[in-house]
Specification:
single chain; alpha+beta; Arc Repressor Mutant, subunit A; Beta-Lactamase; Enolase-like, domain 1; five-stranded antiparallel β-sheet; three-stranded antiparallel β-sheet; 10 strands; about 50% helix
Length: about 350
C-alpha cells in the first residue's frame, strides 16, 4: 500500500474537512480559498487526481469537485484519533453532570439519560447497551416459599439488578429450610460474576454431587435456569434521537436501523466488537456490520464500572459528520457515565 506524502495528506484533509463543513463536492479553487496552502490550483488538481486514483476521494460526476470515500474518511478518522487533540464541549460536560447527578443508584436510568443527553448534543441517533450479564457481580440468592412445592428464587446483583423465577422442587420444604439452603449458596457464590457462578454450578453439579444435601443440590441445579446465557438475557437499554434520523437517512434506512437495534444478535455483536478494546471506535459505511448502515457512520465507546467494561454508548449519523466534535462527545459521555456508575 502506497503511503500518503505530506502534500497528499494536506490536500486530502482539506477536501474532507471542506466536505464535512459544506456538504458539496470540493474543487481546487475552493481549497485555495479556505486553507493557507501554498500550491497552485493546477498542482492541487493533479494531487486530487492521484488521491482519486488511490481511492481516497471520488468525483460524483464530470466537471464536479471531489468527495471523500470511505477510505478517505478512515484516514481522516485514524489521524484524528491518533492526534488526540479532540474537541472539548464544556456545555456537554455541564449538562451531563447535571442530568446524571439527579439520578441516584438506578443504573438503567443513568444509561438511558446518558443516551438522551448524547442525542441532544449530537443531533443524531444515540444507542446504549446495558452491562453484560456475565460481568455482573452476584450479591445474594434468596428462596421464598410460594405454594406447595413451588419456590420463588430471587437473585440480586451488586448492581441492584434482580432476577427471579418460580421453580418447583421435588417435595415440600419449610421457609426455614429454604433460608438455610440460601445461606449456604450465598457463602459459596457471593461476590462472583454471573459467568463464574454459572461455571461453578456446572462444575459442582458434575464433580461434587455428594457435598450438598438434597435440597441444596436441587436448588443449585435449578439456579442454572435463573441465570440464562448472555444471548437470552439481553435488551437495549437506551435508544434516543429517533426523530433526528430522517435528516440524514432514508425512511428505508430508518426502518432497517431500528429493526437491527431491536435484534439481540446485532447488539450482542456490537458489544462484543467494542469490548475487545477500550476507548472510542468509529465504524464507517461498509465497515459497519449491518447493510442498512452502509452509508452511515457509528461512533461507539465502552463505559465501565470500577474499571470493568460494562456496556457501550454511541451514535449513528451521516458519513460526513463532524468527527472531531462527535468523537469527543461520545468519548466524554462514556467517561462521565463510567464515573457516575462507579460512584453508585
Amino acid at each position: 500500500m502506497i503511503k500518503l506524502d505530506t502534500r497528499r495528506k494536506e490536500i486530502l484533509w482539506a477536501i474532507i474537512q471542506s466536505h464535512i463543513d459544506l456538504n458539496i463536492p470540493i474543487g481546487s479553487m475552493l481549497i485555495t480559498q479556505r486553507f493557507p496552502i501554498s500550491l497552485s490550483p493546477a498542482t492541487i488538481r493533479n494531487t486530487m487526481a492521484k488521491l482519486e486514483e488511490m481511492g481516497y476521494i471520488a468525483q460524483p460526476h464530470t466537471s464536479a469537485g471531489r468527495v471523500p470515500t470511505e477510505k478517505g474518511y478512515r484516514f481522516y478518522i485514524d489521524t484524528l484519533i491518533g492526534d488526540q487533540t479532540l474537541f472539548i464541549n464544556s456545555d456537554l460536560t455541564k449538562e451531563l453532570s447535571v442530568r446524571l447527578s439527579v439520578i441516584s443508584q438506578d443504573r438503567d436510568s443513568l444509561i438511558k439519560e446518558a443516551a438522551r443527553t448524547l442525542s441532544s448534543f449530537s443531533r443524531y441517533l444515540a444507542i446504549a447497551t446495558p452491562p453484560k450479564t456475565e460481568d455482573i457481580l452476584l450479591k445474594r440468592i434468596k428462596f421464598i416459599k410460594y405454594e406447595s412445592k413451588k419456590v420463588l428464587a430471587v437473585l440480586i446483583s451488586d448492581e441492584g439488578v434482580v432476577k427471579n423465577k418460580i421453580i418447583e422442587l421435588d417435595k415440600i420444604y419449610t421457609q426455614k429450610q429454604l433460608d438455610i439452603a440460601s445461606n449456604k449458596l450465598n457463602r459459596e457464590f457471593n461476590g462472583l460474576t454471573i459467568n463464574k457462578v454459572r461455571e461453578k454450578i456446572a462444575y459442582q453439579l458434575y464433580k461434587e454431587k455428594t457435598v450438598y444435601d438434597q435440597l441444596v443440590a436441587n436448588l443449585l441445579y435449578l439456579c442454572k435456569d435463573i441465570i440464562p446465557p448472555e444471548s437470552d438475557d439481553f435488551s437495549l437499554s437506551g435508544l434516543s434521537g429517533t426523530s433526528n434520523l430522517p435528516d440524514f437517512a432514508t425512511m428505508k434506512q430508518v426502518k432497517e436501523i431500528l429493526r437491527a437495534i431491536e435484534d439481540k444478535r446485532f447488539m450482542l455483536k456490537l458489544l462484543q466488537l467494542v469490548s475487545e478494546s477500550k476507548g472510542t471506535q468509529v465504524f464507517v459505511g461498509t465497515e459497519n456490520f449491518f447493510p442498512a448502515m452502509s452509508e452511515l457512520s457509528m461512533i461507539i465507546s465502552t463505559y465501565s464500572k470500577n474499571k470493568f467494561i460494562s456496556g457501550a454508548v454511541g451514535i449513528i449519523g451521516p458519513t460526513r459528520m463532524n468527527y472531531k466534535k462527535m468523537i469527543s462527545i461520545v468519548d466524554h459521555t462514556a467517561k462521565a457515565l463510567s464515573q457516575k456508575l462507579s460512584e453508585t
